[in-house]
Amino acid sequence: MSFSTPSKAELKDMLGMLFTNLDVQDCEPLALDADDLFFGLYLDDSDNPVTLVVCDMPFSAYMGSSMTMLPPPVAADVIKSGKLEDMMVGNIKEVMNIVSRLFMLRGGGHLRFSTLHSVKDGLPDSVSGLLASIDQQVFFDVEVPRYGLGKVGFLVPGG
Hints:
By secondary structure, the chain is an alpha+beta fold. The chain has one domain (about 10-155): Chemotaxis protein chec (3-Layer(aba) Sandwich). Helices cover about 30% and strands about 30% of the residues. The protein has 5 helices and 6 strands; from the N terminus they run H-E-E-E-H-H-H-E-H-E-E. Strands 1-5-6-3-2-4 form a 6-stranded antiparallel sheet, sandwiched between helices. Strand 5 and strand 6 (about 150-155) form a beta hairpin. Helix 2 (about 55-65) packs antiparallel against helix 3 (about 70-80) and helix 2 (about 55-65) crosses helix 4. It starts with 7 loop residues before the first helix and ends with a strand.
C-alpha cells in the first residue's frame, strides 16, 4: 500500500477549513531526533503502522491553543515550559485526524490516525520502525494568525 505526501496548497486548503488567513510555506526538514517533537501515528485497515506526521512544539501549542481560542500568551508560556496542556493535546490530535486525508489524495490506501507520541515521553517501536525507513518526506512552516509559526512534516516510509 502506498501513500504520498501533500503539497503546500493541499495542506493550506485542509487546514484552511479550521483557520482563516493561515500561511503555509515549504521549509527545511525538522531534525527528527529533536526532543520537542510530537509524532502522529497512522494505521492501515489491518492496524499496521504505515506513516507519520511530525510537528514541533510551536506548531502543537499554536494549533492547540487557537482551536479553542486560548490567548496567544498561553501558547507562548506552554512553549517555554515544554509541556502541552491537556486541552492542547486533544486539539492537536483532532488536527492529526483531519490531516490524515492528505495521505490518501492520490489513490493511497485507507488509513486512520491512531496515537500522538511525544519524543520526551519516548517513542514506541511502531514509530521508531517507521522512522528508520522514511522514503518520502515534506515539511512546512505554518503560521497561525495572532499566534506564531510552527513546523509540521509528513513522513512516508518505503514499501
